[in-house]
């Protein structure tokens, strides 16, 4: 049986290769020695007893060095290790381990918190968790699942799913751009993101119907965009302004479509008469655009792109800066968004455990309203005992950077 361990486990780092060892048992108590000094400068030793909780982090895919997923596993777990260190000062000690689904099913106990960093764990893991009443199954980033089938087996989902994001985007369009024409362009060739787009559209359609918004959906390919086969007309004399929603992550598809919008709005700007004429288009994108690899800042800044996202890292915050310094010092690397999410999920679960033990999901809504990368708006779904974080925020690309905008979504 293979167990990948890192950080406080004393094993090897994920990027340096796995360490072979059996799945550990779960100790119920531990000791923590704290040395303090009194007013006279004399040392005093305090021994605190605490429960040690077993946190199992599921590997995503095969953990090979050339697989990008292994890097995501490593960064998520590194952030979790830093959270574990912070929780220790609060009297919560974690026994943390990276495992595969097969190893977890074989070695799960009734004192395990299972965390699937990048999605809802498979049916085998869920079934194994259902055998134990105290096991809490958390998903760090499960964007593509359908909330209508979410049951108590899933326990907690930490970031808002695509369905919630789509509904928030529709409400934003209804409030800020009332009366504008709405057109959605989806990359029909991206099969890997098909489920994500489907759930995003489901939420958008439901919220749009409630708000009375009419919209068109166009399915395009990157080749259609490169050949300018785009069914969208923008003229200086058009009656309706346009909200253009782009559902795509392919660089050719996204950059080509945004370039077309800038090209058309430039023609309109040249033909306009009044100085106060507003460009008749605004573009909506996806959360992944925060780290889009081939973004043209000039085009993005000109369009003032907006995205609804469950996560955003504000590097001006002191707690974020402290995390970055700790991560750099420990790992000699820059933290990715996965490191921030690993910290947030682990820290929230640890604080919840401190309040209510293993039955911590109901305590999540009373935790701090802001974590490092996301916020706190946990709600129970379907009356089944599952808790989902519905926190979202609105970002706009202005002055060549993403800036958060206030207001309800």
Can you characterise this structure?
The protein is α/β, with parallel strands linked by helices. 33% of the residues lie in helices and 22% in strands. The chain folds into two domains: 231 residues, Rossmann fold, CATH 3.40.50.2300; 148 residues, 3-Layer(aba) Sandwich (Rossmann fold), CATH 3.40.50. It contains ten helices and 15 strands. The strands form two sheets. Strands 1, 2, 3, 4, 5, 6, 12 and 13 form an eight-stranded mixed β-sheet that branches. Strands 8-7-9-10-11-14-15 form a seven-stranded mixed β-sheet. The two termini are 47 Å apart. The N terminus is likely disordered.
Q: Which fold name fills CATH's third level, the topology of the largest domain?
A: Rossmann fold
Please identify the structural class as seen in this structure.
Answer: alpha/beta
What gyration radius follows from the Cα positions, in whole Å? 24 Å
Dominant shape = globular
Tell me the distance between the termini: 47 Å
Main beta-sheet strand count, sense and barrel state: 8 strands, mixed
Q: What's the quaternary structure here? A: single chain
N-to-C series of helices and strands:
EEHEHEHEEHEHEHEHEHEHHEEEE
Q: Assess the beta-strand content as a share of residues.
A: 15-25%
Tell me, what is the CATH class of the largest domain?
Alpha Beta
Q: What integer is the average pLDDT?
A: 77
Unreliable segments of 5+ consecutive residues: 1-38, 43-50, 62-66
Number of helices: 10
User: Percent of residues in helical segments?
Assistant: 25-40%
Relevant CATH superfamily of the largest domain? Response regulator
CATH architecture of the largest domain: 3-Layer(aba) Sandwich
Number of domains: 2
According to DSSP, the number of beta strands is: 15
């Amino acid at each position: 049986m293979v167990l990948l361990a890192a950080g406080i486990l004393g094993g090897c780092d994920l990027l340096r290769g796995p360490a072979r060892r059996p799945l550990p048992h779960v100790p119920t108590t531990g000791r923590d020695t704290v040395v303090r000094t009194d007013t006279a400068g004399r040392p005093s030793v305090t021994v605190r007893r605490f429960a040690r909780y077993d946190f199992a982090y599921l590997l995503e895919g095969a953990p090979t060095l050339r697989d990008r997923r292994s890097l995501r596993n490593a960064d998520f777990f590194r952030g979790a290790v830093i959270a574990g260190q912070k929780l220790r000062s609060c009297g919560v000690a974690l026994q943390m381990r990276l495992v595969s689904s097969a190893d977890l099913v074989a070695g799960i106990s009734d004192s395990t918190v299972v965390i699937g960093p990048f999605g809802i764990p498979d049916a085998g893991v869920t079934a194994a968790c259902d055998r134990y009443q105290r096991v809490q199954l958390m998903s760090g980033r499960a964007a593509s699942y359908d909330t209508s089938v979410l049951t108590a087996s899933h326990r907690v989902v930490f970031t808002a799913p695509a369905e919630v994001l789509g509904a928030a985007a529709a409400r934003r369009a209804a409030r800020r751009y009332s009366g504008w024409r709405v057109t959605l362009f989806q990359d029909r060739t991206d099969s890997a993101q098909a489920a994500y787009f489907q759930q995003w559209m489901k939420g958008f359609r439901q919220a749009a119907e409630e708000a009375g918004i009419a919209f068109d959906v166009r399915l395009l390919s990157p080749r259609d965009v490169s050949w300018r086969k785009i069914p969208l007309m923008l003229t200086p004399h058009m009656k309706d302004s346009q909200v253009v929603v782009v559902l795509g992550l392919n660089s050719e598809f996204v950059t080509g479509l945004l370039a077309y919008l800038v090209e058309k709005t430039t023609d309109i700007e040249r033909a306009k008469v009044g100085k106060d004429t507003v460009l008749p288009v605004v573009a909506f994108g996806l959360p992944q655009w925060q780290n889009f690899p081939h973004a043209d800042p000039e085009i993005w800044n000109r369009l003032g792109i907006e995205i609804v996202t469950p996560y955003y890292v504000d590097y001006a915050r002191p707690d974020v800066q402290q995390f970055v310094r700790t991560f750099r010092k420990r790992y000699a690397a820059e933290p990715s968004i996965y490191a921030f999410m690993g910290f947030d999920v682990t820290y929230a679960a640890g604080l919840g455990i401190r309040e209510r033990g293993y039955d911590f999901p109901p305590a999540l809504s009373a935790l701090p309203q802001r974590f490092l990368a996301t916020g706190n708006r946990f709600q129970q779904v379907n009356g089944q005992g599952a808790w989902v974080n519905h926190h979202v925020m609105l970002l706009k690309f202005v002055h060549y950077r993403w800036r958060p905008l206030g207001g309800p979504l």
